[in-house]
Amino acid sequence: MSVGFDKEIYSDDHISLRANFTGIVDNETTHETLKMTLFAINKHTGQPVFNTTLSFETIRDLYTHLNSISIIRDAESNKSARFIESSEEIQNLLSQLESLGAKALGPILKKITGSEKVTELLQNLTDIELDSLSAAYKHQTYKQELENLEKLLELEETGNIVKELPKNENLLKYAAKQPEKVFQNWIEQNIWVFGVEYTEHYEARKIAMSSEADLLMESLDGFLDLIELKRPKLEYELLQFDKSHNCYYPSKPLSEVIGQSLFYLQKMDEYKAIIENEYKVKVLRPRVKIVAGRTKDFDEAAFEALRMLNSNMNNIQIMSYDYLLSCGRKIISNFD
Question: CA 299 to CA 311: how far, in whole Å?
Fold first, then answer.
């Protein structure tokens, strides 16, 4: 325990509840070392009653949650306005709406002083105008998310993404302890990049699939597919070139991912009834989309080889992170 960072946060006749920060050396700490221990002791016996240790991520989530309540955030406020429980998703949406409002909705919002005027405004907006507002919001959001993905790919390529990511405030929402999880976090928050094909995702670990980065995706028609995520580096290449035969072939890491995907398809078939009951979706000829590696340096022959590989595999598609960027840019262009 750190004596200098110990604080009693609650006390009665029997119990003392305290919070203590550890991992602070010479008044400095890091994301990896900072911890907070909450513990309670019996005042009469000195015996511990309860204790738990929170990681940096959990401490930050708790801080964000408490900061969302106005009377906690603002010491001068003696009451809170009407509010709803604020999830991380809502917080992200609010921050994005604030950014949009300053540019596109500011002049309108400044003139709104009561709920009746809001209602009147919405009633008088045409469907086309509402669609335009929605398109403007999506355009800005998607564009920012693609820029974030480009930054993540740059960090992955030039350094240690896990250590460098916390230095960029715009990327903190993707922070994780493993590089694969960083990109999984981006994918989970940006299902739109696959088009309108998927409506919801589930965690594949619930059906005993070993890869932490797997995502089960529900399509618009209610069927289940799987997305297998690997790092953009993928040991630095997707394809290798056979000089003796003048052709490309899957690299060893990519071959391993393909084999892993075939195993997943087999398991999804074996556990079909369990999965359908668990997720209330249909399992019929599921597909696996492998997101891995980069293709930004591919020549025409390499692109042709990758297309031939995809066309000759049943229910498995390989797509690079550059392919995702390209898909995202095309979707954004629809809003222009």
Answer: 19
